[in-house]
Amino acid sequence: MEHGSSTKKKMMNFVAYTQTNEFAEVPQKGITARAFFYGSLLSLAIGIGVAYADNAIRGSYMGLDFGSPAAIFVFFLFVLFINPLLGLIRRSWHLSEAETALVYIMALLATAMPSMGLTGFFMAYLTGAFYYATPENEWGELFLSHIERWMVVDDPLAIQYFYEGNPSGGGIPWDIWLPVFLAWLPFLAALYLLMIALMVILRRQWMDNERLLYPLMQAPLALIAPKRNSLWPRLLHSWTFWIGLGIPFSVGMINGLHAYFPVVPAIELRGSLPIFRNSTTLRPTLSFTTLGISYFLSRDIALGIWFFNLVAKIQEGSFNVLGIASNERMEWVTVPILAHQSIGAMTVLVLFGLWMGRSHLQEIVRKVVHSGSGIDDSGEIMSYRTALLISLGGTLIVGWWLWLSGLPLWAVPLVIFVAFVIFIGLTRMVTEGGFFITRAPINPGNFMVYGFGVEALGPSGTTALGFTFVWAGEMRIFIMAACANALKVGQNMGGNRKHLLWAMLTAILLSGVGSIWIDLELCYRYGGINLSNFFTSLVNYPFNFISRNLLNETAISWAGWAWTAWGSILMGLLMYAKQRLLWWPIHPMSLPISSMWMTDTIMLSVFLSWMIKGIILKYGGPGLYNRSKPFFIGLVVGQFTSMGFWLVVDYFTGMTDNLVWWL
Hints:
Number of helices: 25
Radius of gyration: 24 Å
Structural class: mainly alpha
Shape: globular
Oligomer: single chain
Order of helices and strands: HHHHHHHHHHEEHHHHHHHHHHHHHHH
Number of strands: 2
Helix content: 55-70%
């Protein structure tokens, strides 16, 4: 018995040692005005730059997913050129470690606003129903009369010019847009504050008690850590980092040149392998970003990602061969059966996590009830009392706003519950599993119509659900996940940490305002239909959802509920095995998103990284594992830097649609 206990302790010590982040130490220094200034400049630049790149350049997407390439790219340039230059001009101008951490935190939060974070969909969804309504699609008869006019733009001329450009060259009709923005402001402010408050509540449980790895933050933490008597971070003195950076950057250079000179052959890193009588497809893809990030995953999580993805493909192929199918249709979902299974699994994942953290949550409640005693919250960006009040108040404001938009009162708490199960679940996967690209298996709108039927929701309720696509549609990036990662970067920053909250809110505001302005400017100058697919194809998703369900009078899917229950049971059993069986080698965290096409595309790279890490640990030990970290960080930084490099080049040359990296 003692031998078994000793072996287990040694294993735990070894795992803790190999997972130690050598770059994560941040000195105890406060937040300064100059760091806030630089962070604000980068936040505004990211908001404007990402929105412009998405719509005018249409190259590699820098703000589409949780990896936040825009934040990494601009921050890498900042620590490579700008901060050292400041130090060369005057040594006292050089930003400290804590100050550069603040700059990155603001850049990270800023990247979560443009593109699919909010503004990529926002203006399109506020106008698209009226512009794309035709006698053929019958939107006018089905639901236009059920749209609350205070929450959309319904001026015909303003909408026409938005999509087709203003022929007279006039500017943005702010008198029409501002009232709509003000109508959405209470909802969005409450939603984002609620997300931040929940992450404050969960931060200590995830970071200190469970010691999640935060793989996506390994690159920025490495770029923050200084080297004594040097103007550059310690990472930039590592030759292995530059080798790692050079590999994806060179591939990106070749693929970028291919758009200018077709004689230069493009390097194709994507494959397609039909299986199960061509009824489904494996998508082997080499992603240097995934290779780099997956190196910092625990072995059981990496194994779970590629293993459960293979299981999902087998499940999908078996369904197709056996003729097991669903007549349901869902936006961004190819196999509705697996979507129901996945949301059941994600619900259990979130609830199980909250149960595991019940002691921490109880301490917070005691802290609030017995003011001044119990758990220390002086190191948080807001007190636990404030966080709980914001959580309660934010939920009430969000619910009130959804009810005003047309959602039945009984459906409001269900929509909020499903949305935040998805938000918290995906955030957990991002912070623990390093998913830089993923999304929800099902959105709240589809869950509600198939879970309760259109008859119960009514035309107004179904229409209101369509407009939840603004903030809970594809969900490939959002503020909660960015906030969770930001708190990891700033965990040891000294000074008054309440200032960090205001810095984060400033970054959100600047990026949001900047991206909204540039989107409106581009649309009224060139016409939205001449820009990106945000205004041509993606714009129709919520309205197709509304019309399809109203036209077919979608009923309750009892089969969907059965698959949801099965997913819950399966996840519960797997979580139990992981917690109770020491020998169990697979973490089930990835089960809820195992059937997504995004998981298909990262599976090969995760497998390769899992295998490489295993070989390194077996033959080189913890020493070689730690010495190899800069190389794998270089893979991440190199791919994101090549994306940003070509966007800058394309801007000056006028090139468009030069998609150097899509993953």
